[in-house]
Amino acid sequence: MRVVLSRRRAVAASVVAVSLLLTSPGPAVAQEDSEPAPVSTPLSFGAMGLGGSIALSGQRGSAVVTVPVPPGTVPATLRGTVEVPAGLERGWLDVTHRGRIVGRVDLPTGVPTAPVEVPLTGLDVVDDTVTLEMATTVVPSAGYCLDSRESSTVRLQEPVMDVVGTPANPTVVADFLPPVLSGLRIFVPDEPTADQSTAALTLATSVVDFYGSQPVRVTVVPASALGVAAPDGPFERSVVLTQNTDPDARLIYPETPGAPPQLFVSGDGATLVDQIALLTSDVSALAVSTRVSAGAARERPTLAADSMTLRDMSLGPLTASGSGEVTVTVPVDQTRLGRAASNLRVHVLGDYTPLSSEIAGALRISVGSNDLVTWPADDTGRIDQWVDVPADLVDRVTSLDVAMQTSGNGDACSTGGSLTLTVDGGTTIESSGGTPDARGFASVPQALMPTVDVALAQQDLPNTVRAATLLTGLQRLSARALSPAVVPVEQLLTGSGPGLLVAPDGVDDLGVDSELTLPLATTGTSILTLRDAAGETDSAQVTVDSDVPFASVQVARDDDRTLLVATASDPVQLDGLVNWLGEDPTRWDRLTGDVVLGAGEREPVSLSSSADVAEAEPVAAGSTAPTGVTAILVAGLVALLVGVGAAVLVYVRSRGRQDEVPPTRPDVSGGPSETP
Fold it and tell me: Structure pTM?
């Protein structure tokens, strides 16, 4: 399981520590306040990026979790609600650490759930993390068979680790980012330059990437608000970007006792981005002073390859054990491939428990409910199978299930004994570039790699804030860090690379001669025109009252590149839509189609301009509504902008659902969670 300290931006930089004790009159001198009495702080697994639940499947289920521990604290207890399967006669949960049982609790019987609490004492904390092994043993009641993953799974719901102590404040730049971070504020000059906007966007995306599944809240605020801003809490940090020809990063301690220091980062042009890159780089450990200066960063480019192994993608090997049927899910994440893939072909290598002659078995590779290949198990125990993934099954993350099922050996539950299935790290994914099979929102952020150009219609703070919110939302979907760079509008629209355009006053008056065709176009302030993938302008047209402001975020294809365009008839309406996208860390993952549209105070909706783009929701069973893209679009727009219920054929809300896991991030199992 990945916690933090992974997927760091790989940079090689020279780091120079600068002593401030003699040369500067005290702004970076740590305050020595009396230590408050140790307190207990609850850290939910969701807030630490570990998901909302831990699943332990099988009659002997197991899971290993690595939990971050804030410096200055020690683990005290692990607690949560345990959920047990039906037909359980007895069972127990063991929590071990380095081979030593630190706690055992009996599983409840007769009730589906019960609270549990395990004391955690004497654990070894290494590099601000502690590793816990959890194991369940379940014994079924007479007449019950716990022979499948579903019937035998014990879940620890909403786990929380209580830590005791006072989280320590950083004393050097190397320790500025804590193991658990709930919020980051980026203070930007009120009138930022393009380089300062690039630095803010780079910091926002790199920090979200650095913390992975942790739902870090990133906000960009004007530097003029620094003097009245509330001090940071123990799991919050503030970075202040300043203009200076002498580049450096230094800790400045606030007047509030006990509050963590702020990091002031200064530089001119590219040197400002160099200081930002240091924070999440592999060489950040060298920044052992309150003030440091980083040399030019040389990033290792995210190169897309036609062929990558799971090992190359930091995924393999993958193993599952159980009885009766076992499944290993291979997440083919296009962001790990470093590009949007137009074709997928997978060479699956692995092994499984050989079966005796009395037991029959079969192996299956599938995507969802679609079986791609099935073949009988034999006594070799080896998997060596090529499989092509149909274009209509390719998604941002295509979950390839490799399963083994047995007929049983005549016992009451027909389990056939214990099985182990492994997919090797040498399993190869072949892909090709070009127009991606996954279209619309399913094609981002992978289609914005390796570098995403960002064009702001006006080089100002509000557009920088909008771009930061959009990019951090996309970064949560990615297994690799996005690399944003602010460029002139003309360079983006006449160029050939992917990009983000933020135009709160519309795209018609940008002063650039461009052939950009948006799925949803506007004429004046009252006409919306929807185009299909071929750019036809008569697909659907809705005339709406000009008093209804609207905003959209659209995924447009321009030849073989992808552009994400945020535009509106009213900048305030665009702010509302962008903020709505940023409110829920999982909202971007739920977007479908190629347009998300907000109007007035109505709930934003997702729309599809083409049959090639996945529709958010099919027409209800038994509906007499006509099929076709035009009907979907017209009905969605009418429902959104006019509110004529009788004319509604079908429209698709981007409505919330209780996802178990943050998108694309490897996890045991879990979901949206509160911050610590």
Answer: 0.82
